[in-house]
Design brief:
638 residues; alpha+beta; Immunoglobulin-like; 3 domains; 7-stranded mixed beta sheet; 4-stranded mixed beta sheet; 14 helices; 27 strands
């Protein structure tokens, strides 16, 4: 499994709310097609560019609804959840009003952080919570917080004094430029490079503010109080987005053409993310193209090239087709590194897919368990357990051991990475994503992940197991890596209680309509330490509690509890066949699995919209029927 696929498999929807976050625990699917355990992933990791000029007013509304608790009303990183007390976030988020914060950044960096999160700084991914349009809107709104109207006016005056035509780069290029590079690039396009070179720091900032705000909508929100802007944005109907620019003159508003197909190029820069390491000369790059417009989702083309002396690669004369996926990758030190994108429409004749490779380390001290949540449902004769581990790699090397576990279905060697111990007496029932990704010890005592852990990124491992239970059970679970973060237990029904010196009660935790008894604390443990707790009490015979996590057709919602009483929600939609799940002998292909996962996610999102009254009953039933029918068709082919 190539690394880009691993990124897709482990991506999960995370949302933040103060106190509790109740994320996607949709019901109503019992009796529908049973499928092998699967986690609906977010869209594949890809380079994304604005499909229209981002709307700052829309961004302000989204920011007001979701971001002020950490980043503060004014964007200065002083929200109510920030501080040095118990359960608060420290260090604080960056100050968006300080130009230094964006000095070496690009709006694309900003967008990617919003999309993928920064778990090491408790910044969750918003990939599944916000659309691309919304993420670009809030990215450019927060970016513009270090501008002010007088700064923009000064920049406009400086530019207009040159008496030259304003010819901004395309949206794709704009979001990949720092403010400083934007000034230089635009001045060179206008033939006034000397003007840009002669500006002092304040002048460059002013011109950058003017140029940047010519490529967005809703500029009038800059400098206005957030409460006022958010209220107006909520009351007014959404604007029809302005078309994507390049601008040939300040007044140009013609949209870039959107095509079904075009012949273009796919290129990118390959860099080594490990300090002091280089990209090997003539490194081979593979491009695979998949047609996602058909049920078969066949691979239609494979091409090869090599990295040039300047670290770039290019594929010329590529058929860019709406509904196709483009996957560029390389194998380095036996591990695959890549980048991919799915074209929803063709508005550019070039795609940029940068690739970062890393040196490999097997040093376990670079890995920290930064969160662990265990959800327990007590049933007749057993407990059903879903666990989610969150790992962080603190080094600048990819973590992967030398232990080999054969090849995956793509013919690539599976190397071990992080592993977790399973409590004595547990019977593993499966995983929340690709079965092929995990290796179970012969005695069932541990699980090893074969997905490498990337530097500085969150890495999720989720597993399911059962244990015999007759009313009194002590569980001891050793940890194989250092723990530094929240550890939570959630148990239902309420007749079952937990006793633990490490994990005191934190009170009831209501997730949708199910109430769990919560236990937890922020722990600092060393490798080999043990997490211990005792369960006592029997469920009533008629109690369904949180539902049978492991039976066919059931749905489980697992939550990760962040600092204090904040909960990061992870929706795990688990459908098992009512049997022990070993690595599947017949399983969907990677692309079939992606489609299955997407359909399950769409059903969940539709159910949630219906529950909120956002979709009328007739539309809801028709859409849901179509989604269920397509899901059943896919499962019938297994």
């Amino acid at each position: 499994m190539r690394l880009v696929s691993v990124l897709v498999n482990r991506a999960v929807a995370w949302l933040w709310l103060p106190v509790f976050l109740l994320l996607t625990a949709c019901g109503g699917l019992a009796g529908e097609p049973q499928i092998v355990a699967t986690l609906p992933p977010a869209p594949p990791q890809r380079v994304s560019f604005p499909a229209a000029a981002p709307d700052l007013a829309q961004g302000a509304r989204i920011y007001a609804e979701n971001c002020t608790r950490c980043h503060g009303v004014g964007g200065q990183g002083d929200g109510p959840l920030v501080g040095t007390g118990e359960g608060q976030i420290n260090p604080p988020p960056p100050d968006f009003t300080d130009p230094v914060t964006t000095a070496d950044q690009t709006p694309l960096n900003w967008f990617n952080t919003i999309t993928n999160g920064r778990l090491e700084r408790l910044m969750p991914p918003w990939r599944d919570a916000l659309s691309e349009e919304e993420r670009w809107a809030v990215a450019l709104y927060t970016w513009a917080l270090h501008y002010q109207p007088d700064l923009i006016a000064t920049g406009q005056q400086l530019w207009e004094e040159q008496n030259v035509e304003l010819n901004l780069p395309s949206q794709q290029e704009l979001v990949q430029l720092t403010d400083d590079a934007l000034v230089t690039t635009t001045a060179e396009r206008a033939g006034i490079a000397d003007f840009a070179a002669g500006l002092d720091e304040s002048g460059r900032r002013a011109v950058a503010a003017f140029l940047r705000t010519r490529a967005v909508n809703g500029v009038d929100v800059i400098g206005r109080p957030l409460e006022e802007v958010a209220q107006v944005a909520t009351q007014q109907p959404a604007q029809t987005p302005q078309p994507v620019r390049p601008l040939t003159t300040p007044e140009t508003t013609d949209a870039a053409p959107v095509l079904d197909s075009a012949v273009g190029t796919i290129s990118g820069t390959v860099q080594n993310g490990t300090a002091g390491a280089a990209v090997p000369a003539d490194m081979p790059i593979t491009l695979r193209i998949f047609d996602l417009t058909t049920a078969e989702q066949n691979e239609v083309e494979t091409r090869e090239t090599t990295v040039s002396a300047d670290g770039t690669y290019t594929f010329d004369s590529v058929n860019l087709q709406a509904g196709y996926a483009y996957d560029a990758f390389t194998i380095y030190q036996g591990r695959a590194f890549g980048n991919s994108t799915i074209l929803e429409a063709v508005s550019e004749t070039s795609l940029n897919l940068p690739i970062t490779i890393y040196e490999v380390t097997s040093d376990p001290t670079v890995i920290t368990i930064t969160g662990l949540v265990t959800q327990i449902v007590a049933a007749s004769g057993n407990i059903q357990v879903a666990q989610v581990y969150s790992f962080t790699n603190t080094s600048d090397r990819v973590f992967s051991t030398d232990s080999s576990f054969g090849e995956n279905s793509a013919g690539e060697t599976r190397y071990g990475s992080v592993s977790v111990a399973v409590p004595a007496g547990a019977q593993l029932r499966g995983f929340a994503d690709s079965q092929e990704r995990y290796v179970i010890a012969d005695d069932g005592s541990s699980v090893t992940d074969t997905a490498p852990v990337l530097p500085g990124e969150g890495h999720i491992l989720h597993l399911l197991y059962t244990m015999p239970y007759t009313g009194d059970l002590t569980i001891e679970q050793p940890v194989r890596f250092a723990v530094n973060g929240p550890v939570r237990l959630l148990v239902t029904p309420e007749s079952v209680a937990i006793t633990s010196s490490q994990l005191p009660s934190i009170g009831p935790q209501t997730l949708r309509s199910v109430t769990y008894q919560g236990y937890g604390s922020t722990l600092a443990l060393s490798p080999g330490d043990v997490i211990r707790y005792q369960l006592r009490g029997l469920p009533a015979t008629s109690t369904t509690g949180g539902g049978n996590i492991l039976s066919g057709g059931a749905v489980v919602a697992i939550v990760l509890v962040a600092v204090g009483v904040m909960i990061i929600g992870v929706g795990l939609f688990i459908y098992l066949r009512g049997r022990r799940v070993a690595p599947a002998t017949v399983a969907p292909t990677r692309d079939e699995q992606s489609l299955i996962d997407g359909l399950v996610r769409q059903i969940a999102e539709l159910d949630d919209a219906h529950d909120k009254g956002e979709v009328d009953e007739d539309t809801y039933r028709k859409r849901r029927k179509r989604l269920k029918t397509r899901l059943a068709e896919l499962m019938d082919r297994e």
